[in-house]
């Protein structure tokens, strides 16, 4: 086996000696790195304390976690809430300005806001900016979960186990999903369509495309049915439905949760004519 390593000679030895190659040729140095035990080869044992290995002690595990995790999590939620509140306020202000100035076209309104109200223009949510989150990240994430290959000529060619697929989807992350409200106890919510920017415990926070300005809407999961699609190819997609009453968990909690079959008497209104 040839153990010559030019990297050692050229990078390590050459920086230590001006004539590294000569020293190697004279057998004064070796161009190989050897690992030797620091205790001279004597066998050593892990020291135990109170019957437990030190490396597995509770103190070591406690110190290994991020000391500022709770603070980081708190700050991230605060920043997201601030963005949502600011975006909703900016959208409402933009609509009011459009009504007062009789601006009925999106380019006309955005141009006016950019010139006269730059702060409002900068705070307006933009659907096109968040769209790649759905098309490039979430769709590929779902295709990978369900093992959908890239070159599928027809959805009928897919071999997907329905039970396993539903289990995976129940534990998946829906931030970036394009969902539509198909049915709700609140009739004003029906037909809302947008990209999920926050999958909270009790609500889906959606960024929706508007006629004049894009808006952020908070849709409660309770009493609501959502629909979404996972594209298979350019013409076909897998369609699924989410029962909001059974989805009232955070995405991080769903990942380690077992969903069991249970009575659904409390959801009979879903099949009612109302």
UniProtKB/TrEMBL annotation:
InterPro entries referenced in this protein's UniProt entry, alphabetically: RNase_P/MRP_Rpp29-subunit (IPR016848), RNase_P/MRP_Rpp29_sf (IPR036980), Rof/RNase_P-like (IPR023534), Rpp29/RNP1 (IPR002730)
Gene Ontology molecular-function annotations: ribonuclease P RNA binding
Gene Ontology biological process terms, A to Z: rRNA processing; tRNA 5'-leader removal
Keywords: Nucleus, tRNA processing
A Pfam match: RNase_P-MRP_p29
GO (cellular component) term, any one: ribonuclease MRP complex
The keyword Cytoplasm belongs to this UniProt entry's keyword annotation: no
Superkingdom, taxonomy of origin: Eukaryota
Name assigned to this protein: Ribonuclease P protein subunit
Subcellular locations according to the entry: Nucleus
Family: Belongs to the eukaryotic/archaeal RNase P protein component 1 family.
Species for this entry: Lachancea thermotolerans (strain ATCC 56472 / CBS 6340 / NRRL Y-8284) (Yeast)
């Amino acid at each position: 086996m040839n153990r010559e390593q030019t990297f050692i000679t050229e990078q390590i030895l050459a920086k230590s000696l001006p004539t590294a190659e000569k020293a190697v040729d004279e057998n004064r140095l070796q161009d190989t790195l050897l690992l030797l035990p620091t205790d001279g080869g004597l066998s050593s044992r892990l020291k135990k304390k109170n019957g437990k290995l030190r490396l597995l002690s509770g103190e070591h595990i406690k110190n290994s976690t991020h000391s500022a995790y709770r603070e980081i999590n708190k700050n991230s939620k605060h920043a997201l809430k601030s963005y949502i509140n600011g975006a909703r306020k900016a959208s409402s202000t933009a609509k009011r300005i459009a009504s007062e100035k009789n601006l009925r076209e999106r380019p006309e309104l955005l141009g006016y806001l950019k010139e006269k109200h730059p702060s409002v223009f900068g705070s307006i949510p933009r659907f096109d900016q968040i769209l790649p989150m759905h098309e490039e990240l979430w769709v590929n994430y779902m295709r990978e979960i369900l093992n959908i290959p890239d070159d599928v000529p027809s959805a009928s060619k897919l071999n997907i186990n329905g039970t396993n697929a539903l289990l995976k989807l129940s534990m998946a992350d829906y931030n970036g999903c394009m969902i539509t409200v198909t049915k709700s106890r609140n009739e004003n919510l029906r037909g809302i369509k947008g990209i999920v920017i926050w999958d909270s415990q009790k609500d889906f926070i959606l960024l929706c495309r508007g006629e004049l300005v894009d808006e952020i809407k908070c849709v409660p999961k309770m009493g609501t049915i959502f629909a979404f699609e996972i594209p298979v190819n350019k013409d076909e997609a897998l369609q699924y439905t989410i029962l909001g009453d059974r989805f009232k968990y955070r995405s991080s909690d769903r990942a380690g949760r077992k969903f069991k079959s249970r009575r659904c008497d409390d959801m009979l209104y879903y099949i009612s004519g109302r």
